[in-house]
Design brief:
single chain, Rossmann fold, 2 domains, five-stranded parallel sheet, elongated, binds adenosine-5'-triphosphate, binds magnesium ion
């Protein structure tokens, strides 16, 4: 979690940027900068900063335009900075949607004070940008291990019980050609990955939730598999932006459909806060899991990010959680019971396990997976509030 707000600086020359950073460098993280004001919206979309510092003096017309664009994007607080004390400009800045106006002067600490005063608005916007969100990737080490069963039922459980701060859950299927999240939920796609990636710059929070496909319980889903041919030129960069966009507004983003280690899977895995690594208690699955874990460790993922979930678990099975944990040198964090009758019925009827077997152990096991990452959310929310208070007191 970042403790300082991230910023972009737009429209300033090098000396002005240095002066700015001398005054506020310890309060913020500089994500990026550009002298050309027309780059401001693109920088905001790319870096999702908490605050955009817009230096007015070289091209006021374009800076006001950039300010209007950023204000529309939602989630980033635009602030105008100038060396010129002209009250008329303040008025124009406010009309353009700036949340603050401050003077840049050699020894003054005015900008510093303005940023501290803005901390409330920054924190609200930053909350929207996903400080409190969690991206959870469900990854099958071997095809057919139960990733889609777990992802769909876990996302539904989160949607119904676990919303942090009243935020929504979105279930994401990244298997563009053969994904089966839609079939598992018995829905057809209204809004695809292609639609999201192409229209992100136009969407605000309300439009996003209105556009996405929903199941009967109101769980939001984004998939491509109804129109796979449109996905042909979807690339990792688009998916990365898509995930960043979703996490801005959702409490949880649950990802299914990760196949092997292609570029898109790797992007999603990198962006995930938690990876639920699904294994079944059989030797081929364990061999694959061993390989996956080696790759994950090479990618720098630590044991806190990866959680081993043993699916199709049976109490008396010879391959028990302890021996699986020993073999994989990673403890089994949770088990999901083997219950073929209920699981296959739920898949074939396109209904959730909690609809057809609310009291079954398998249903409760999947619901309990929330505990693997929900605690972290509470902790992050607490840290977030503390850092907010700390900012206000300085
Ligand atoms: N806990 C379980 N108990 C019994 N059967 C299960 C369980 N979980 C999954 N299955 C069965 O395993 C099969 C594969 O499940 P699922 O489609 O969820 O796996 P997957 O990892 O998403 O597969 P794919 O590689 O095709 O994406 C299904 O037919 C389902 O019935
Ligand atoms: Mg699947």
């Amino acid at each position: 979690m970042k403790s300082n707000p991230s910023i972009i600086i737009v429209g300033a020359e090098e000396t002005e940027q240095t002066l700015l950073m001398d005054q506020i460098g310890d309060l913020v993280n500089l994500a990026s900068s550009a002298a050309d004001p027309t780059q401001a919206p693109e920088l905001t979309r790319q870096h999702h900063p908490d605050l955009a510092l817009l230096f007015l003096d070289h091209d006021p017309g374009k800076i006001f335009e950039a300010c209007r664009d950023i204000a529309r994007l939602n989630g980033c607080v635009p602030m105008i900075v100038s060396k010129n004390r002209d009250p008329q400009q303040i008025l124009q800045a406010m009309k353009a949607g700036a949340k603050a106006f401050s003077y840049l002067e050699g020894e003054s600490n005015e900008i510093r004070q303005t940023i501290l005063d803005l901390s409330k608005q920054i924190s609200v916007a930053a909350g929207k940008q996903g400080l409190q969100s969690k991206v959870v990737a469900v990854f099958s080490c071997k095809g057919g291990s139960g990733s889609t069963t777990i992802a769909t039922n876990l996302a539904s459980a989160l949607h119904l019980h676990g919303k942090p701060s009243g935020k929504k859950t979105v279930l994401v299927d990244l298997n563009f050609q053969m994904g089966d999240v839609l079939a598992f939920l018995d829905i057809t796609s209204r809004y695809t990955w292609r639609n999201l990636v192409d229209n992100m710059h136009r969407l605000d929070e309300v439009l996003l939730w209105d556009s996405l496909t929903r199941n009967a319980f109101g769980l939001h889903v984004i998939s491509q598999s109804d129109v796979p041919e449109e996905a042909d030129n979807l690339n990792a960069e688009g998916i990365e932006r898509g995930i960043a966009f979703l996490r801005r507004y959702a409490g949880y983003v649950v990802i299914d459909g990760l196949r092997d280690f292609n570029e898109i899977s790797l992007t999603a895995l990198d962006r995930a806060d938690k990876i639920l690594l699904v294994v079944t208690p059989d030797i081929p699955a364990l061999k694959n899991a061993k390989r996956c874990l080696t790759i994950f460790r090479q990618l720098g993922y630590d044991n806190d990010k990866m959680k081993l979930v043993l699916n199709r678990h049976e109490r008396r099975a010879r391959l028990d959680p302890d021996s699986i944990g020993d073999a994989l040198e990673m403890p089994v964090s949770a088990t999901v019971s083997n219950d073929y009758a209920n699981v296959i019925q739920s898949i074939n009827e396109g209904r959730l396990l909690l609809e057809i077997a609310p009291r079954a152990q398998v249903t409760r096991d999947i619901e309990n997976l929330i505990g693997l990452f929900a605690e972290q959310i509470a902790e992050d929310e607490e840290k977030f509030r503390l850092s907010d208070l700390w900012r206000k007191r300085r």
